[in-house]
What does this fold into?
Amino acid sequence: MMAHSARQLIDQLKEKQSSKKDLGQHFLHDERILDAIMDIASPLTQSNVLEIGPGPGTLSERLLARAAQLTTIEIDPGACEHLAQILPDLEVIMGDCLQIEWPAEIDTIVANIPYQISSPLIEKITTIPSITRVIIMVQEEFAQRLCVETPADRGSLGMTVMLDWETKMHTKVAPHCFVPQPQIHSRVVELTRITSPQRATLCRMMIHQSFTQRRKKLRNTLRSPPKGIQNLENWGHIEWKQRITKLEHPLFDKRPEDLNLGDWLELAACLDSA
It folds into this structure.
């Protein structure tokens, strides 16, 4: 049994300060959802966990009891002070998780994150190879795009995430499970690191480029070199234009949302060998 209920932790923080909308503070108070997150994340006895945005500590207290090591990053000074008082054994780093360097030993992320940083946070996590599991709460619509549940969900986000992660949607969470209530439903999602396929970087560049104009056919959007192509070995603007000009492939007559990941990898392979 937890030393504090989720409501107690939230109320103690609220006695000191109001929720800060600009930081996306919606505190999860539903004990069943908190337990469900821990069930998904377990076992953690061998894991070095990072929690982003612990707020009042409702998830932190559970993680402290189960993780081999727990570090938290919190941008709100008031929440940091609250956590130091209520959970003195908790390691809290004050700062912006997108700006500061994370502890090198982290291998797992478990967090109810501020929704406005969802995309850049996943991008940062992906660049840290030691992190192999991610269990986070995100906006329902974002979860659908992230996990590409249906062809209609295909976009730059989900298709590029597939290159590095296996994704899974878990518990759907209603607004009334939070204080204050958001206006949208939320979803717990799980990401498990996979071995990236060959030419993943080239494929990622092509996907990003194509979805900037998702209604156009690929032969039009890929005519210009993708951003950063010169950073790839044996590639540059001249090489791109030479290869894209002479390559004929039926997928070039498709729009980006028509392609699955296998199609993107096939195109990347054809371009790389052209």
